[in-house]
Amino acid sequence: MAAIYSLYIINKSGGLIFYKDYGSAGRMDTNDSLRLASLWHSMHAISQQLSPVSGCSGIELLQADTFDLHCFQSLTGTKFFVVCEPGTHHMEDLLKNIYELYTDYVLKNPFYEMEMPIRCELFDVNLAQAVQKDRVALLGR
Amino acid sequence: MKQYANVLDRPISKGKQEVSLSGFAFLFSELVQYNQTQVDNIAELERRLEDAGYAVGTRILELLCHREKGNRRETRLLGILSFVHSTVWKVLFGKVADSLEKGTEHEDEYMISEKELLVNRFISIPKDMGAFNCGAFVAGIVRGVLDNAGFPAVVSAHFVPVDGQQRPRTTILIKFAEEVLQREARLG
């Protein structure tokens, strides 16, 4: 059964602003998750330079034997990426949904400071619902 | 289109019925953020949001009396309360308020409740801000309407936890001044 291991959101300078793990497979302690976030930020930037085709916008999918990593970059440079089981479908749609939730419950919150870690209750609640719905839909397919 | 010599003779148009929710949310968020930079404590912030709402309430009362009620004036308590609960809410938020209740403990208290205020839809209050509610803006609007209709009152917004629901509902508490109750009693 395909499932998400963890979700990361990094700001435009590569700092981790949101991290959530789903299950023990994806769990990381704080330092490791920060390290991974900046690692991915650098790799994403390097891949834009390495590309033989001009106009490359960075890595969208990384496939390994034990996991897949789907990444979505918004126009402002905020990156949403999810580590999941190999072969999980429809992660791009999930990432787009999460981006919508981010624009609604984080950016419209007057108490949220830009580029800072996300501490918005409504975002957490709606994110949990979105992931749950995705999981249920996955079981149905 | 008929041209009017005097701008005051032009009929008041119905205006656009719909406004972008995102547009409003960003504007309101900016209003809260701006006021946060101007104050030292939460009580001050609440008062400023209320004052901003008061200005809106004053104007909306004038407009709605002309547009909806044909320039009639409410003189009874229940009349003005149901005006706020239905007409004002419908125009501002697109729906009537969830409920209107009379307070059980005090004679002068009434409550308008809403499962979730439109202004609070995208806002998560940080834990260190305690009981602060951005609904103070809406409380200010209600106070503006009541004050200018001749029913002075103290209005505040509160979160009320509900069993079985994670999010508390919001109650606008209206406490009328003594003179209002006395006048109401005289009118019978």
UniProtKB/TrEMBL annotation, chain A:
InterPro entries named among the record's database cross-references: Longin-like_dom_sf, TRAPPC
SMART domains assigned to the protein according to its UniProt record, in alphabetical order: Sybindin (SM01399)
SUPFAM superfamilies for the chain: SNARE-like
Pfam families: Sybindin
Entry keywords, A to Z: Endoplasmic reticulum, ER-Golgi transport, Golgi apparatus, Transport
Cellular compartments per GO CC: endoplasmic reticulum; Golgi apparatus; TRAPP complex
GO biological process, one term: endoplasmic reticulum to Golgi vesicle-mediated transport
Places the protein is found: Endoplasmic reticulum; Golgi apparatus, cis-Golgi network; Golgi apparatus
Signal peptide residue numbers: none
Family: Belongs to the TRAPP small subunits family. TRAPPC4 subfamily.
Subunit structure: Part of the multisubunit transport protein particle (TRAPP) complex.
Name by which UniProt lists this protein: Trafficking protein particle complex subunit
From TrEMBL, chain B:
Principal location class: endoplasmic reticulum
A GO-annotated cellular component: endoplasmic reticulum
Stretch forming the signal peptide: none
Location of this chain's protein in the cell: Endoplasmic reticulum; Golgi apparatus, cis-Golgi network
Keywords, sorted A to Z: Endoplasmic reticulum, ER-Golgi transport, Golgi apparatus, Transport
Family annotation (InterPro entries): NO_sig/Golgi_transp_ligand-bd, TRAPP-I_su5, TRAPP_component
Pfam family, one: TRAPP
GO biological process: vesicle-mediated transport
Subunit structure: Part of the multisubunit TRAPP (transport protein particle) complex.
Entry similarity comment: Belongs to the TRAPP small subunits family. BET3 subfamily.
Name assigned to this protein: Trafficking protein particle complex subunit
Originating species: Abeliophyllum distichum
